[in-house]
UniProtKB/TrEMBL annotation:
Pfam families (UniProt xref): Flavoprotein (PF02441)
One GO MF term: flavin prenyltransferase activity
Protein's UniProt name: Flavin prenyltransferase UbiX
Stored NCBIfam families: PRK06029.1, ubiX_pad
The protein's enzyme class: transferase
SUPFAM superfamilies assigned: Homo-oligomeric flavin-containing Cys decarboxylases, HFCD
Origin species: Planifilum fulgidum
Protein keywords: Flavoprotein, FMN, Prenyltransferase, Transferase
Domain Flavoprotein, residue spans: 2-183
Binding-site positions, dimethylallyl phosphate: Y162, K178
Function description: Flavin prenyltransferase that catalyzes the synthesis of the prenylated FMN cofactor (prenyl-FMN) for 4-hydroxy-3-polyprenylbenzoic acid decarboxylase UbiD. The prenyltransferase is metal-independent and links a dimethylallyl moiety from dimethylallyl monophosphate (DMAP) to the flavin N5 and C6 atoms of FMN.
Binding site for FMN: G10, A11, S12, T36, S97, M98, G99, T100, R132
């Protein structure tokens, strides 16, 4: 089982993060999560969450075992995930706003999520960012290229159609599955391409 850090930002695409965390928890992986203020706003807008009781809302939505899901407020810069001495296997920022992506690329740590991502890069651990924006400006592209050069994996939220999605959930599961592929975690979230005649 793996220990993973998940960061959610204010980019549209909260379903990707929820699907990913549901699958990780279902498989028994340990999930440490932090959500930016804008990320909570997106959860409210896209899912109708009442975000006054944040940790409770997250646990309820994910039906999470208290031993596997660990939540940290984004302002808690003293949380375990802020330190390189905290052992973990990887971090995923999903969805990743262009503002957060830019700060990570420039080494700016103004909150816990950005600090945790900075720790992953400095410790040489896997960092996956899942940007959700279109169209992309040259600034966006250059920041993504910089992160890639620094060792991060840039995995844009780009659903595919070759697996025959029947609904929106299938498209969400595809993106979450691609993240799991990068983490080397087996899953059945989407049907893999087997070639054609």
């Amino acid at each position: 089982m793996k220990r993973l850090v998940i960061g959610m930002t204010g980019a549209s695409g909260a379903p990707y993060a929820l699907c990913l965390m549901e699958e990780l928890l279902r498989q028994g992986h340990e999930v440490h999560v932090t959500v930016t203020e804008a990320g909570w706003r997106v959860l409210k807008e896209e899912h109708g969450w009442r975000v006054e009781r944040r940790e409770e809302a997250l646990r309820e939505a994910l039906k999470a075992d208290s031993g596997l899901l660990h939540y940290y407020p984004v302002r808690d810069i003293g949380a375990p995930i802020a330190s390189g001495s905290f052992p973990c296997d990887a971090m995923v920022v999903i969805p990743c706003s262009m503002g957060t992506l830019a700060k990570i690329a420039q080494g700016i740590s103004s909150n816990l999520l950005e600090r945790a991502a900075d720790v992953m890069l400095k410790e040489g651990r896997p960092l996956i960012v899942v940007p959700r924006e279109t169209p992309l400006s040259l600034i966006h592209l250059e920041n993504m290229a910089k992160l890639a050069r620094c060792g991060a994996t840039v995995l844009p939220a780009m659903p595919a159609f070759y697996h025959g999605p029947r609904n929106l959930e299938d498209m969400v599961r595809f993106v979450a599955g691609k993240v799991l592929d990068q983490l080397n975690i087996p899953h059945r979230l989407y049907k893999r391409w087997e070639g054609s005649c």
